[in-house]
Amino acid sequence: MSRRKGGRSQSRFDHRPEEELVTAVEAAALLGVKRATLYTYVSRGLVRCVPEPGTKENRYVRSDLERLKTRHDARAGHAAVASGALRWGEPVIDSSVSQVGAEGLAYRGHSAVALAMEGRSLEAVAELLWTGRLPEQDPRWASEEPPFPPSELARLLPRDTPPVAALSALVPLLAARDAVRFAAPPEQEKARARRLLRQLAAWVCVAHAPGRVARALRAGTVAESLALAWDTKVKRAPELLNRALVLCADHELNVSTFTARVTASSGADLYACLCAALGALSGPRHGGACDRVEALLTEVGKPERAAAVVYERLRRGEAVPGFGHQLYPEGDPRSPPIIEAAREVRPESPRVKVARAVQEAGHPSPSVDLGLVMLADALGLPTGAAATIFAVGRAAGWVAHILEQREQGHLLRPRARYVQSPR
User: Fold this and answer.
1) Arithmetic mean of pLDDT, 379-402
2) How far apart are alpha carbons 78 and 70 in whole angstroms?
3) pLDDT of 84 strictly over 60
4) What is the average per-residue pLDDT within 250-263?
5) Rounded mean pLDDT of 317-345?
6) 294 pLDDT exceeds 70?
7) How far apart (Å, rounded) are the C-alpha atoms in residues 126 and 285?
8) What does the pLDDT read at residue 183?
9) Which pLDDT score is estimated for 273?
10) Tell me: the pLDDT tens digits for 345-371?
11) How confident is the model at residue 9, as a pLDDT?
12) Does the structural domain 98-408 have CATH classification 1.10.760.10?
């Protein structure tokens, strides 16, 4: 008996010396079948067997057994496996952009915390994420000009529009003015991405202070653009904002990044991918978590009320936002550097004090969302600034994943398992 493999005839008794062999009992157990079924697989050429010298027994090639089991599992249980993978399960996409592990968060093999604490700029980290190479010196991206008067967009937005919502309105307008955005080569896309990140940082103030946009676009770095746009008076603001931006730059397949990759797989342009990511980010269970933390600290009001408010939330079965992360059972490594920055610059800030009191109420370690809210308050930034820092920093990672998805070239199109709805 023989079967075709790689264009040649292969006997069921052929095997390479290095291939591992197992007994019939072990083979049947590995497949989860009876021995009679195992012999059927052998007769059909699906599993090779090798006579054991001096006995009447055969040995079976483990690699054949594992290949057959994988095929059967894919047919019988693929839907369940895939469904579980999409719910904080096993990895579903190959990526070399970032890694979350026991050692923390790494960008292309470089510790995110180390990059932030060394003072590497968001621009340098973005180039690392996009190219795989960390520049020796922090690059200087060209300054920009507003593509249209900021006052025109300001007239369309309520004055209290959250900054992230303002950016969601801005990006489609930038897209409409870029006629060569489709099917752009990678180097052109990187240049476009540099301009986009500069624009995102400078336009965060457009709803209430459109006059600052042009000045912010002329700043030297993305972090300086944010500081100018929000008109913070803290001298260290650009340095500390940059630290937060770097720590937010990427985080594997989070909701917004996965959304950007799915959109990129359809062939959509860079602006469309960022629009999709911003939409996903706005949800209260993702980037909107910062807004929930802001609401919690407002509810607490004073440090002495922290324990009571937390107790009541837990008693009612409500979540306490800003604490714990499923990927970091030992604590979110991004949080301490940001919380430390907030305490350094303005320890007397009311919200910093309230946040510290909430921390002391006995919760899991704080997430990056709590740190961002503390830092935004310490720097005197407006409501919604924490989520915006997250968005501007994460845009660097979105671009990296968009570029990587295009290189991989396949459409991300999972299947649904039909189930009849209850009547």
Assistant:
1) 97
2) 10
3) no
4) 96
5) 90
6) yes
7) 25
8) 87
9) 98
10) 988 888 899 999 999 886 789 999 999
11) 37
12) no
Cα gap 315→309, rounded to integer Å: 10
CA angle 242, 245, 246 (to 5 degrees): 90
Residues 6+ apart with CB under 8 A from 130: 190, 193, 396, 399, 400, 403
The C-alpha atoms of residue 130 and residue 97 are separated, in whole angstroms, by 8
Q: Which residue has tokens 């600034």?
A: 385
Lowest-confidence pick of 78-87, 187-196, 206-215? 78-87
107 within 8 A of 128, measured Cβ to Cβ: yes
Decide which of 1.10.1660.10, 3.40.50.2000, 2.10.109.10, 2.70.98.10 is the CATH code for 2-85. 1.10.1660.10
Residue 98 β-bridge partners: 107
Question: In the prediction, which pLDDT does 86 show?
Answer: 64
pLDDT band at residue 417, thresholds of 50, 70 and 90?
Answer: confident
Of residues 25 and 72, the one with the higher pLDDT is: 25
Q: What is the mean pLDDT of the chain?
A: 90
Query: What is the C-alpha to C-alpha distance for residues 260 and 255, in angstroms, rounded to an integer?
Result: 9
Q: For the chain, what is the radius of gyration of the CA atoms? A: 27
CB burial string 253-271: b at 16+ within 10 A, e below? bbebbbbbbbbbbeebbbb
| Structural domain boundaries in the chain | 2-85, 98-408
